[in-house]
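Q: Focus on the chain.
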Amino acid sequence: MRRLRGYAPCRSFTTKLKRRLAVAAIAATTLSMALSSTALAAQNCKLMLHGINVAGAEFGQPGDPYGQGYIYPSKETIDSLAQDKFNAIRLPFLWERLQPTLNGVFDATELSRMQTTIAAARDNDMIVILDPHNYARYRGQVIGSPDVPVEAFADFWKRLSAVFANDDDIIFGLMNEPHDIEAPEWLTAANAAIAAIRNIGAGNLIFVPGTAWTGAHSWEQTFYGPSNASVMTGVVDPVNNFAFEVHQYSDADFSGKANDCSHIDGAVDAIKNFTDWLNANNYQGFLGEFGTTDQINCLRGLKQMVDIIQNDQKAWVGWAYWASGEWWPKDAPMIIHPDLRNGGSAQLRTLQPILADDGTPRNVCEGG
């Protein structure tokens, strides 16, 4: 039977990452209590995710055949990344493939593919972050529009959370990189999804992005209207078991699309500034995507970004590098390939000193 439980985004490890997060059981009535992040943190232990995005299931268009337009990660890929000591994977997928009709049932075959990948991760004691990689859209229409009402987004999360409710190794990432939607409208959608998750009885940790591609560098900017920094403090979670997800790249426009790291110093500064915002507002964060090329100054900046997170585990629950997966071209500049390290070897070597601790805690349980 599944256990009803609540945990802050933190846990301690011994010699390896356990399959399930060790959490304290909470009564069902706790779902209606607004516990503070501080209170939850004091009750639990530290968790630091050392993750990697494993791309493939979000590739192509919704109608593409499986194995031609898109693919889920193979067991061999998951095994390889576990051997590298990554303790979590962020699993991108397309909303439309899992739920072909808004408010409709899930496609059983697609759900089975997702569950097979999750089983491979569980075999390696890895946590899975579910990531609908849709940019706050469904078939190209933005959430909150007449074609994709907020209620449909909530329905999606009601159904998905029912499948994985209180599975301690499953984290819910609400949405990848919302954009061209103002922060107040996105907050409404995010809160509706959180309410649907909690109403189903799921206490899983939730990662909540902002709009403007949820960039750490854009968190306090107002070119989309009110800033994430001013609006997203309105997140409502009855069990306060969430963290804010940001992404941060180092090329000229911070998109991660260019083969350069011309703004690596700006990327490091963005992580510093977002850390300050988290601490000032008593929140926690997760760096869901980041990556860089293999020039020495880029790798130095990569390590600086990770060190900021590792050294402030009050503010951060971890990070997930972008990316890995079988279908990337071998010359993709940021990709850590799982096969014989044909790519990403310098980036992997940069991360290895942190990965090598195999989940050993940097912090002990608070108050104990």
The beta strands are 49-54, 88-93, 127-132, 137-138, 141-142, 170-173, 206-209, 242-249, 285-291, 316-324. Residues 157 and 309 are 29 Å apart (CA to CA). The chain is about 30% helix and 15% strand.
